[in-house]
């Protein structure tokens, strides 16, 4: 019997946009980089299987065969029980590994009878040089090995199986690829290095892992899927932008009629305003643009072909930014983006609630909201609250946030209905919005924003209280406490 369903899919990635590549580690020096533009073209067309060395390394690390790994998973499926937990599935292919050469895998929860699949790429910073990769491997080993992954995970937000928390996707087949738990710098993303045992090399296999995960889902019924949504948060969201066309192509080649869609949460970044550090790339002081340029050579990185054609060789790094990549993609995309994204602020060394704030930095914060808002003008489906935060779709309270009186789950449902109507040659219904961008200008001017928290005291503060605590005079900045309260009341009454 064919098992159909929606699957939230946590891929344990070795690098979402990277080709299979290895970069020799040179003691005391930065690793040599090579294979930029040509490798990207080849990778976009499709990736070859890594060499036998990679296979042997991962086999040694995992210590068990693919068959034995799958036997235990099959036993749990045979019980036919529906639970809220996603179970760890290790890839059948031992040649595609992650991190330290241990087996790559994903978490899976099947909902039998459903033809909707949710494939989720978890976010997480990563490295772009020998020094940063070595540091990551030494200091955060859980991000570079599957050996410590738990056998089960429970999803929240759009990954939840509870209808009251996840009204429209709770009964999907869920597949999660878990690249990292957290990340510190947005530009260190998507290329989770695979350090092969007994080797002085790193490998970058993220796109290969995504391909192999989809292969492993064929017996689960993904070929019969009606909708496949590739979703991600933070770095994983950028991974959605970089990989969605490749996923759509793979599924088309499998003969599926599924519509592939993308959900991009907090991965719509803008270029940094910082000047290039003279210490780059020897330290983590590189700007995002420089880190991507350096990383692309090390990763032998892949960018979508249509975007690559817009830029001359050496400028492919621009395709890592959603506002440059978006117009070249053909798959439907829904962009979720806080207008005052905290990770974008971190790139500029701005930490709300954690340090003093200059008037120049406050001005940058205000301008950031306008710049992100302007960059979203031509995006068809978008949810952009005027808040200071980062990531939303996996928060258990994600239903609380609204723009113009519409919650994010509702906006996603409206988008879903519109796509289905167009697919079936019907006119989309009116009064169900999914282009929602806050019109108010200030951070936290949306009354449904997540609360700001003082990092020292862990107390919740209003924006004005936060600015005072960080050494600014609200009146000097032209902020009126009474006016702010009146504005919030008006917004609440008029739906944002």
Automatic annotation (TrEMBL):
Keyword Signal (UniProt): yes
Signal peptide interval: 1-18
Entry keywords, A to Z: Signal
GO biological process terms held by the UniProt record: negative regulation of canonical Wnt signaling pathway
Record protein name field: Notum, palmitoleoyl-protein carboxylesterase
Record field: compositional bias (Low complexity): 42-78
Organism: Poecilia mexicana
Ranges for region Disordered: 24-84
